[in-house]
Amino acid sequence: MSEMFSMTDVTVCYDNVEAVRNVSLSVEEGQIVTVIGPNGAGKTTLLMAAIGLLASRGRLAFQGNDIGRMSVEDRVERRLCLVPEKRELFSDMSVADNLLLGSYSLRDRSGVQKTLDEVYDRFPRLKERQRQAAGTLSGGERQMLALGRALMAKPKLLMLDEPSLGLAPLIVREIFRTIASLRDLGVSILLVEQNARAALETADYGYVLETGEIVQSGPAKDLIHDPRLITAYLGGH
Amino acid sequence: MTSDIAAILAIDGIATGAVYALVAIGTVLIFTVTRVIFIPFGDIAAFTALTLAALDAKRFPGTGALVVILACLATLIEIVSLLRNGERRQLPRALFFYLALPLAVVGLASLTMRADPPLAIRLVLALMLITPISPLLDRIVFRPIADGTVLLLLTVSVALHFALVGLGLLFFGPEGVRTEPLTSLSTELAGVLISGQTMLIVIAALVFSGLLYLFFDFTLVGKSLRATAVNRTGSRLMGIRPARAGTIAYLLGSLMAGVSGILIAPVNTIFYDSGFLLGLKAFVGAIVGGMTSYPGAAIGAVGVGILESFASFESSALKDVIVFSLLIPILIWRSLASLHSEEEIEE
């Protein structure tokens, strides 16, 4: 397996406060990697720096190239995609238009219709509601649309920020099933989650982020049985 | 007032309103995509009329020199910013779009001028010369402060308007112009004579609004502009560059302003500083649409035109007072309405 994405000694500052300190992590090709940790640990900040919405120090590499100084749009054109925590949908545009705009960064437009059909196959609900405005969808449908829109860009690395946030348990399960199935498409995934159990059950490898620093890492199947993590995040005894 | 006079005033008002509508739609387009309330829009319309008048008189218009100066400035700024960000690869592209393209337009115009072109070609030339101005101004003035507050952008926009009026005096001189009507046809509708120019204005406004609608609803670029307007962060995450979306918005907007300048030039005498009132009245129309709705802006602008027409019949001296007094109740109504919608969002 070759390395898809890596962060080396990445530090992100808000004004003069270091929200993320010397974080190093990597995602191999076809791997699902999760970053878990409590609220305010800097998980979202980490992803914002990875996509370029926040400036950072340290090295960011995507498929062997340094992307640290690239604009957000250049990173997206290299097929590094982020589904942000707030989804950032185009609320008064239709579901179909939202999906179409997901493919905006693709130069080769020939496969767009096929990808759209695949997204509709994956999320039949979106097909039913394709003419509806995105702002009128339910929370679960919005998350599906955000995921579908990101898939339209044919991402090589998909970064997901709290995809289960605010969703009903049944829909959370559906979303995680979808995430797991993306592995078969060859998409590498960097998943940031508060729902640590679901994230570790889906992921291959995990990092634990606390107050801006990585405090622990390992294969997900080991972390899920780690006594300290069980008490702190997995709600076990 | 007899019904005949009312009908004439209404038709006159609709024609003027249609011109305002084009500028108002352009204003909304630029505001939603870039958050800039582009006050100099009226100036662009007036400059188009002055450009066309110069072309009609077989003089090369001052617009050419203005475009060349702006292109050089914009190129310089772009090169410095690219070098500072270490993006040397983008240099050829920048030279092409900011220098070669505008200079080619001016060159083409000056070559075509010698051949004494017919009216249709002169119209195209006037539009071609005017459209680069706003995108270049955007690069020079607004791009460096793109993340500023709406208030900062507005203040700079007002300053830019005054700078442009000065440049207008420099390049076009103090004389007013009135171009020849584009058509001498006229028709009678229900006993009221309607001039061809009036019909042309209304048809052109409808056609250009229609084209814009098709562009927004059926093209990927049009949709990307709407996306930028709806959600800037979301659109960046799709790879849509706000700066490029802004340039397209300025290009389209100035085309609309240019068309309105061409349409109004045979009806009103246009001076280098006539743009301000035109832009301001279109702005009142745009505010009726809450600065975000194209149909709202168009309806508002036509309303302003009709009101102005009747007001000028009742009291010519007070017509602008009446039109701008309209702004106060509209702003109160809009602020109450938007207060309401913010509450809904919070829920």
Automatic annotation (TrEMBL), chain A:
It comes from the Bacteria. SMART domains: AAA. Keywords: Amino-acid transport, ATP-binding, Nucleotide-binding, Transport. Coiled coil: none annotated. Residues 5-236 form the ABC transporter domain. SUPFAM superfamilies: P-loop containing nucleoside triphosphate hydrolases. GO terms for biological process: L-amino acid transport. GO terms for molecular function: ATP binding; ATP hydrolysis activity; branched-chain amino acid transmembrane transporter activity. Pfam families: ABC_tran. PANTHER family: ABC TRANSPORTER ATP-BINDING PROTEIN, HIGH-AFFINITY BRANCHED-CHAIN AMINO ACID TRANSPORT ATP-BINDING PROTEIN LIVF. Involved in beta-(1-->2)glucan export. Transmembrane domains (TMD) form a pore in the inner membrane and the ATP-binding domain (NBD) is responsible for energy generation. Belongs to the ABC transporter superfamily. This is Amino acid/amide ABC transporter ATP-binding protein 2, HAAT family.
UniProtKB/TrEMBL annotation, chain B:
GO terms for biological process: amino acid transport. Keywords: Amino-acid transport, Cell membrane, Membrane, Transmembrane, Transmembrane helix, Transport. It is found in: Cell membrane. Pfam families: BPD_transp_2 (PF02653). CDD domains: TM_PBP1_LivH_like. The keyword Cell membrane applies. It is a multi-pass membrane protein. GO terms for cellular component: plasma membrane. Its main location: membrane. Belongs to the binding-protein-dependent transport system permease family. LivHM subfamily. PANTHER family: ABC TRANSPORTER PERMEASE PROTEIN, BRANCHED-CHAIN AMINO ACID TRANSPORT SYSTEM PERMEASE PROTEIN LIVH. This is Amino acid/amide ABC transporter membrane protein 1, HAAT family. It comes from Bradyrhizobium yuanmingense. The lineage of its organism: Bacteria, Pseudomonadati, Pseudomonadota, Alphaproteobacteria, Hyphomicrobiales.
